[in-house]
Design brief:
Layout: E1 3-10, H1 12-25, E2 29-35, H2 39-53, E3 62-66, H3 71-77, H4 79-82, E4 85-89, H5 108-117, H6 121-131, H7 145-151, H8 157-161, H9 165-179, H10 181-189, H11 215-219, E5 229-234, H12 243-255, E6 260-265, H13 275-283, E7 287-290, H14 296-305, E8 308-310, H15 320-327, E9 331-335, H16 340-343, E10 349-350, H17 353-365, H18 368-371, H19 384-394
Parallel strand pairs: 1-2, 1-3, 3-4, 5-6, 5-8, 6-7, 8-9, 9-10
Helix pairs in contact: 2-3, 9-10, 10-14, 12-13, 12-17
Length: about 400
């Protein structure tokens, strides 16, 4: 088997997945990428670029790509690739992706996705037979997305958990984090084979804020149990992650003189919502970290230092950063919407910003509540140890198979 990996937006969780597959498949794959810039142009023109740059080879058997690529265009431009078995991975659904401004939606991106995953009945039946995917009326899901929605967590937690030490250490992370933090840090920073999450990818050079995480400086002269609640928001600095809701809640806590610290991590692009600069100024001394952390060890340490991880996303297929934070001992609070109810138990979900505020208000008053809490959900199923064999089956094809 030879797998052709194509990623038109090689950054964030897109990069993590491709790097993981390349590492696991090793000599059995060829990786072709474009930088993670100008997303809309990647979606419109990547097929033309890859038509010219993907090497011609008789050894390819499977083509694996993310849905940023217009797969229909590429296979039309390169008939040799059209003969391959194709696996298309959806990181998001462009038909319902939230628009930033009140204007007519550009349906081209959703249309590209429809063209790319439309499959005739006999191929749907073939997929159901080979990998056990059950059809439920959603054409997108018939191309492997039931498992893919759950397997997006393979990005960072996946490769790490394959060593078994993370699976075994997971309960310990949630207890020793509050009793002897350095041991938890050691356990997490062992995950050196994992790729950085969407929250550790570098910003454009002009926007980078290289903040080195210093554990001793943060804890010096202050007992861990006595310090204020530490809230972390580890997401891309874009509108679909709902930063306005997050900062509105924090500023409301600030107005009530409730003690807390906050770390706002994540990747920033050329256009950063104004709320970030406004909120940083308003939050003042409550800010511990602001922006991109230069290494994955710094990022993991920041997560281990935090007590609560928040999502305010408006659009989410999985939420890698949230699962990573749970692995590092954070108490998750997520919207009772999108994919979150499939992953997190009900006690970690909120329905309105007011509910989120009330939860955080209580935690600010009693941070020991979350520091003693043991996570009640299950994350082992998102590891590469659990999903690796399924991906290998998906990426297996006989040379003479009728696809």
């Amino acid at each position: 088997m030879c797998v052709l990996l194509i990623e038109a937006f090689y950054g964030g969780s897109h990069k993590q997945l491709m790097d993981l597959l390349q590492e696991e498949l090793q000599e059995d794959c060829v990786l072709c990428t474009l930088p993670a810039k100008k997303w809309h142009w990647r979606a419109r023109t990547a097929a033309l670029y890859f038509m010219q740059t993907v090497p011609i080879s008789p050894n390819y058997r499977i083509l694996f790509a993310s849905s940023v690529l217009n797969l229909a265009e590429l296979t039309a431009l390169r008939p040799d690739l059209g003969k391959l078995k194709k696996v298309l991975y959806f990181h998001e659904n462009q038909l319902v992706y939230p628009v930033q401004k009140y204007q007519e939606r550009d349906f081209q991106y959703g249309y590209n996705q429809i063209l790319s995953w439309f499959m005739p009945e006999h191929k749907l039946a073939h997929f159901e037979k080979v990998i056990g995917v059950k059809r439920n009326g959603d054409a997108c899901q018939t191309v492997g997305l039931p498992s893919q929605q759950k397997c997006r967590a393979l990005m960072k937690t996946s490769n790490a958990a394959s060593k078994s030490e993370l699976c075994e250490a997971q309960p310990r992370l949630h207890t020793t984090q509050h009793e002897g933090l350095p041991s938890a840090l050691i356990a997490v920073t062992r995950l050196n084979k994992s790729e950085a999450s969407e929250s550790t990818n570098p910003c454009p050079e002009e926007d980078k804020q290289h903040l080195t995480f210093n554990l001793s400086n943060t804890l010096s002269g202050q007992d861990y149990q006595q310090r204020p609640l530490h809230i972390v928001w580890p997401h891309r600095w874009e509108h679909d992650k709902g930063p306005e809701t997050f900062f509105e809640v924090l500023l409301k806590l600030k107005e009530k003189d409730l003690p807390f610290h906050v770390s706002v991590l994540g990747e920033a692009f050329s256009e950063i919502p104004d709320i970030f600069s406004e909120a940083k100024k308003a939050l003042g001394s409550s800010v511990l970290h602001w922006g991109y952390l230069p290494t994955k060890d710094d990022y993991f340490q920041a997560l281990c230092m935090a007590d609560v991880v928040i999502s305010t996303a408006k659009h989410e297929f999985f939420g890698v950063a949230m699962v990573e934070a749970v692995y590092c001992g954070c108490y998750p609070l997520c919207p009772k919407a999108l994919v979150y109810p499939e992953i997190f138990p009900a006690e970690y979900l909120y329905s309105t910003p007011e509910q989120l505020f009330k939860r955080l208000q209580n935690f600010c008053k009693r941070p020991d509540i979350v520091r003693k809490h043991l996570y009640k959900g299950e994350t082992a199923g998102f590891s590469w140890a659990a999903l690796g064999s399924k991906f290998r089956s998906l990426l297996a094809a006989e040379p003479k198979e009728d696809l």
